[in-house]
Amino acid sequence: MNVAERMLRRCTFAPPLSAAALAFSALLATVLPARAASQATTGTLAGFVRDSAGAPIANAEVVLVQTGVELRRIIADEGGHFVLGNVSPGIYVAWIRRMGFASAEYNWAAVVDKRDSVTATLRTIPHGLDAVVVRAKEDKDMKGSAQILGLVVDTEGKPVAEANVELVGADRAGETLENGGFLFRPLPVGPYVVRVRKLGYVPQSVTMQLQQGEEREMVVRMHPLTGNLATVKIVAASGFDSRAEVALKDLDTRLRWRSARDVVLGPNELMRFKGQSLNWVNSAFGMTQRATFRSRGVRSINPAGTSGKVGAQTLGAEGDACILENGTHFVRQPLWSYNMSDIELLEIYDTYGDDSRTVDFHMTGRCMRGADGTHPIWYVVWLKGRDR
Question: By CB atoms within 10 Å of each CB, which of 31, 136, 276, 377 scores lowest?
Answer without folding.
Answer: 136
